[in-house]
Design brief:
Strand order of the largest sheet: 1-3-2-4-6-5
CATH superfamily: Uracil-DNA glycosylase-like domain
Strand content: 5-15%
Number of strands: 6
CATH topology: Uracil-DNA Glycosylase, subunit E
CATH class: Alpha Beta
Number of domains: 1
Shape: globular
Low-confidence stretches: 17-60
Largest sheet: 6 strands, mixed
Oligomer: single chain
Length: about 250
């Protein structure tokens, strides 16, 4: 993750902290010293109402007013060549106030057809995983590193990941989950900026920012091909459950 991206996240987080503390306006700068060439600038006698939120220019990392605006931009996206081969953009869905967010690799064939994340065979297994944690799918948020399906379900290319980066970053900034669960190697590589193996990344949390931590586990599609991996995934999910105070479904 670049220093520029880190700085933008810190600025966004600071703005949220100020808002929670009741700060609704930034202090007015002191007027410049009066000179003959610089006449005084009139200032309104009445301050703005306390409930009026000042307009803050959107930073380059957050050019959208809300998730709906971000979604509309993604649906019309032509930032990479996947726009030429996709059927539908798969933006993401779920609870926009979720404490738990799952991030996968990219849409598959069924997701590309329906425009929703994790609705194929791997999605059905993910639903079972979420249910086993004592949650409903509607209480989590699900997204992917890529919003469009790569042809033949090939691995994401670096330029595709870069093109989709602003969308996923904004989703995380708005949702502010306590835990992000990376499903598979490509999600872990993107979120942790690492090429370490899943084996080395599993079993512990990784800090994302002051609020959000990252856990890593195997992709449900991998579990369909290698059923023995389900035991490892359950261990990873139990780590998340303990952090969020969840009880397994009876």
């Amino acid at each position: 993750m670049s220093p520029e991206t880190d700085n933008r996240r810190l600025v966004a987080e600071q703005l949220r902290i100020w808002s929670r503390c009741g700060l609704t306006h930034l202090p007015r700068p002191r007027p410049a010293p009066r000179t003959e060439e610089s006449p005084p600038v009139p200032v309104a006698d009445n301050p703005p109402p306390a409930d009026e939120t000042p307009a803050v220019p959107a930073s380059p990392s957050a050019p959208w007013a809300d998730l709906n605006a971000c979604r509309e931009d993604a649906l019309a996206c032509t930032r990479c060549a996947l726009a030429e081969t996709r059927q539908k953009v798969v933006f993401g869905d779920g609870d926009e106030a979720a404490e738990l967010m799952f991030v996968g690799e990219a849409p598959g064939a069924e997701e590309d057809r329906r425009g929703q994340p994790f609705v194929g065979r791997a999605g059905k297994l993910l639903d079972k995983m979420i249910d086993a944690m004592g949650l409903a799918r509607e209480r989590v948020y699900i997204a992917n590193v890529l919003k469009c399906r790569p042809p033949g379900n090939r691995d994401p290319l670096p330029d595709e990941v870069t093109a989709c980066r602003p969308f996923l970053d904004y989703q995380i900034d708005v949702i502010r989950p306590k835990i992000i669960c990376c499903l598979g190697r490509h999600a872990a590589m993107r979120m942790l900026d690492t090429d370490s193996s899943l084996k080395n990344l599993r079993g512990r949390f990784h800090d994302h920012n002051e609020r959000t931590r990252i856990a890593v586990t195997y992709h449900p599609a991998y579990c369909l091909r290698n059923p023995a991996a389900k035991r490892d995934v359950w261990e990873d999910l139990q780590l998340i459950m303990a952090e969020l105070g969840l009880q397994p479904r009876d």
